[in-house]
Write a structure and sequence with these properties.
Layout (H helix, E strand, L loop, with lengths): L12 H33 L11 E6 L6 E8 L2 E2 L3 H4 L5 E2 H13 L3 E10 L1 E3 H12 L5 E10 L1 H6 L4 E4 L4 E3 L11 H6 L24 H26 L3 H7 L4 E3 H7 L4 E2 L2 H11 L7 E6 L5 H7 L1 H6 L4 H6 L4 E3 L4
Parallel strand pairs: 2-5, 2-12, 3-4, 5-7, 7-8, 7-9, 8-11
Antiparallel strand pairs: 1-12, 6-13, 9-10
Helix pairs in contact: 1-11, 3-4, 7-8
Length: 336
């Protein structure tokens, strides 16, 4: 006669003992998971220094373990203000992440040169300018290695370097300024939505989503764009030792391949990382094989993101619509 093991009456005492043990251990397992979550979250939150600025890390990449070094700093993605921790995103070139890295390289006595690896279409004007000025004032020779793209704001930042190296197929240049204003007045009309605006001046709501821009407003904003554009041209003229007229001839927003950029004087050489490293070591007066270190911001912890709500913030930021519609001045190539 066969017994049915699923019938509680037919189970051996070991079933009861096992069930009791599981019930006893379950709270401890749960507690252990919570403790691990807290530890990882604490580690993620401790990625901030006592001053509230993001901590940085240094990773040995190659060469001797001690001695004079070339510090590698990466600028990947769209250039924005803030930091990856506050934005909840690590796929952006955030000024709040990059500026501490530049400061760390500037303060380190063993860092003799900086290799700036850029792969960016550019981004907002202010963080691009902040990074440029931090690099310009760091007191260390800088070599730029351009990746797939070092366009607009990415090229602007490059002007802080003594030597620019690009892949033959890099896309660079795109010297110019862009500013976009979404306008949905027809859509609002079709939806039967009207908006009442009370303002203190005729152009206080310039760039409003709810109405087309007037000719006066277009002219006013064009002056803002032109002023910012001329600053970009001046930076390129100084960085590439070219005349303003020479830069103007190239600065119509066009992108250039690495080969074209070399012919036009926008870069110094075609090459690869080993070429850029050798040049950085040379400019830093490093003899022999240089020690190469990577300076990087801390990764945003998954657990700290969950605990602090940053994961939700990164997926649907509270001010997403406001950021999307707000007027911006950008050194950014939009052709991607």
């Amino acid at each position: 006669m066969q017994t049915n093991p699923t019938n509680p009456a037919n189970r051996s005492p070991w079933w009861a003992l096992g069930g009791a043990a599981f019930g006893f251990l379950l709270p401890f397992v749960g507690f252990g998971c919570i403790a691990a979550l807290c530890i990882f979250s604490f580690a993620g939150m401790n990625a901030l220094s006592a001053t509230g600025a993001p901590a940085t890390s240094s990773v040995h990449l190659s060469g001797p373990l001690s001695g004079p070094a070339v510090a590698v700093i990466d600028i990947n993605g769209e250039i924005v203000s803030g930091s990856s921790a506050s934005l909840g995103m690590s796929s952006l070139a955030s000024s709040g992440d990059i500026l501490p890295l530049v400061a760390q390289a500037a303060a380190a006595g063993d860092v003799k040169a900086i290799l700036l690896r850029i792969n960016s279409p550019g981004g907002s004007v202010v963080p691009s300018d902040e990074i440029y000025h931090a690099l310009k004032g760091c007191g260390k020779p800088i070599v730029v290695l351009m990746g797939e793209m070092a366009a607009s704001g990415g090229y602007y930042i490059s002007m802080a370097a003594e030597h620019l190296v690009a892949n033959p197929n890099t896309l660079t240049g795109s010297i110019g300024v862009i500013s976009s204003f979404p306008e949905a007045s027809e859509l609002m009309k079709n939806l039967g939505v009207t908006v009442s605006v009370i303002k203190s001046g005729s152009v206080k709501d310039i760039g409003s989503l709810y109405r087309p821009m007037t000719a006066q407003e277009m002219a006013l904003w064009q002056k803002v764009v032109d002023e910012t554009y001329e600053s970009f041209v001046q930076i390129v003229a100084e960085g590439r030792k070219m005349s303003i007229e020479q830069v103007h001839a190239l600065a119509d927003g066009s992108v250039y391949t690495g080969r074209q950029a070399l012919e036009l004087g926008l870069i110094d050489a075609l090459g690869y990382q080993e070429d850029a490293l050798l040049k950085a070591a040379e400019l830093g007066a490093i003899t022999g094989t240089p020690r190469v270190i990577l300076l990087a911001p801390p990764a945003v912890s998954l657990f700290s993101s969950l605990l602090s709500g940053r994961m939700n913030q990164s997926l649907i930021p509270e001010d997403f619509l406001g950021d999307l519609l707000a007027p911006k001045l950008e050194y950014r190539w939009t052709g991607q």
